[in-house]
Each structure stands twice: as C-alpha cells, then as structure tokens.
Design brief:
- The chain is 81% helix and 0% strand.
- By secondary structure, the protein is mainly alpha-helical.
- The protein has a single domain, classed as Na+/H+ antiporter like fold, CATH 1.20.1530.
Amino acid sequence: MNKILLMGVILGLGYLIGKITHKIKITSVVGYILVGVLFGPHLFNLFNPSEELIHIITVGTLALIAFEIGVNISPQKIDKIGKKVVGITVFECSFTFIITAIGMYLVTRSIIVASILGSLAAATAPASRMAIIREYRARGNLTDTVIAIVGLDDALGVTFFTITLALTKASMNPIPITEISLNALMEIFGPILLGVIGGLLITVLLRRFEGDEELFIGVLTAILLVSGLAEYWNIDWILACMSLGIIFVTFSRDKAEKAKEFIQNRVLDPIFVIFFVIVGVSMEIDLLLASAGLASIYVISRSLGKIIGGGLGSNIFNASGNVQKYIGISLLSQAGVAVGLALTVSKELPNLTSGGIELGSFIVTIIAASTIIFEIVGTISFRYVLTKTGEANKT
C-alpha cells in the first residue's frame, strides 16, 4: 500500500478507535495501541516504520510532553499545593519504584531490567484521572489531592528514569568509580543546565514579541533546539526539555501557560495517534504471551507500590482518612509517558549490553500491555473510590 495513503488510514482509524475506547470509558491511548498491533508485523503486517521514523516521532513527542510537564511544576504551583502533597508524591513514587524493582529483580535476576521497569512504574496518567473527575463532577479532599499529585507524578517519574538510565549507562563502562560518578553527574546536570540556558534565552527573546504566532513558533523552536542539542551532545533530552519548561514558566508564567495550552490542544493530538500506533507496532505479541507471568508480577508490584507508598506517605503527612485509605488505588492508571520512555530505553539498551535488543522489546511489551490493563482497572477503581467516599456528583 502507498505509504502516504497508509499513514492517512492509520491516523484516521487510530483516532476513530481511540474515540470508541474513550466512549466506553477507557482512555484513547488503548485504542491507538490496538491499531498499531493490528497494522503491525504480527497481524496484518501493513505498517513497519523505519528506525529513523520511530526515533524522530519518539524524540519529538516526548520533548513536547517533557516541556508540558516542566510548565506544570512551576515553583508557584509547588508552593500552592503545599508540602503535604509533595511529601505524599515522593513517598508514593519512591515506594512504587522500589517495590516494582525488587519484584522484577526476583523473577528476572537482571538489575538493568528491574531498575528500568521500577523507574517507569512511578508515573500516573493525569489525563484519565482528570476525565473521570470531570465526568463524575467530583469534589472533595481526596479529589483535590489526586489532582495535585498527578501534576507532580510524571515529573518525578521522568526524574527517576533519567537518573536510573544515567547510572546504568555509566556503570556499563569499564572505568574507575570516580569517572563513573562524574559521567553520571554529567548525564543528570548537563541536560538541566542546557534547559536552564534555553529557558532563560527564550524568556528574554519572547519579551520582544506579543503575538500568539511568535510565541508558539518560538516555543516549538526552543523545544526542538534544546532536544536536538541534547541528543547531539549525548545527554538526556527529556530532562533538558522539562528544565526548559520549568524555567520558562518561572520567569514568564502567562506565556508559558498559553504555550502549554497550544501544545495540548493543537499539536499533541495527531502526534499522539501516530506515536502510540508505533508503540503498538513495537509490541512483541509472541513475547507478551511467553512473558505473561512476568507482566503479572509487574502489575502486582506496581499496584502494591502505589497503595503502600501512597498510604504511608499520607499517614506520615497527616492527610485525611479518605486520602490515607484510597490515594494509592486512585493512582493506578499508568502514564502514556511511561510507554514513551520504554520506547526510548529500547533504543539505548543495544548500546549498553549484549542482548539489548531483546531486553528493549521485552520492556516495551511489558509497559504497553500493562498500560492497557492499568487503564481498565485504574478507571474502574477510581470511579468506585469517588462513589465510596461521597465525592462524586457534587454540584
């Protein structure tokens, strides 16, 4: 089939099936992934994108998402939501990372796989939580806490992933421990410095322009330049773009919020369709069937981490009874960014270890499949919690 025609069919069909899954109260991401599986090499074998295309779409999508995450965690917002929510988020994400990593290490005996899957487990899907809150017209202490936490969850999850990948890459090189430590610090602080410089430059430059068109083109240019330079210098472009967003919103709040809304409403929707279709294409169905037991361990470990970490954190920081009891189960949905990060690490692993291609395919398959499971289970459980606590249907 003509490739341009095929892309049109995939984009349209992906969007349509995404709408159908959304109508039956499951996130559109599930529909996009299913279209990828359908068109991929394991079923109809109609869409087999090149490594270059996969790389460009992955970097572009995650760079935009990372910038959006950065804008969402401005110092003003951190101050507004308070130390209590920050503390609960840190406990919930940390326990999810630790428990998932331990669970996966016990069954895989691979520190690399265990630590990477642990870091990917931390983030929660904010879009599906917000959709349910709007649908149920939910209000209350638990609802407010969930809204605040999902805004920080992705940021902390990306940070865990960046640190884990940096330490993994550094430790795989046969060099002295001091050099490993220096390399790890460069992997973490190099992209932060790049993002800070980029954020300051765009803040100064955009002060000269007032029009929306100049703002949007300027922001997209900055995101592409920062991610491109980070990749050229072989440092983490996700952390660099997140830092870009943080600095921009800190010094130019109104423009940053307007740029974020433009990216959310005008740019990301069609890119998301193609991106998650590619994730579906990358899933190894045979590998998933052979690894169903390992996928189950991941789902169970991540769920325990969310429930235990969220409950313990809310107890230590004296949250309300409903928050202590239900915050963990309210955060089960897995973020789409986790799928994107899995796709990213699958391209890094072949350079780090023998059998990296197989490990990368395994990680993408586990994360993509578990995302479908968590979107179904997480949606049902959060609806139950809102009804149980009496926070649903508030006018």
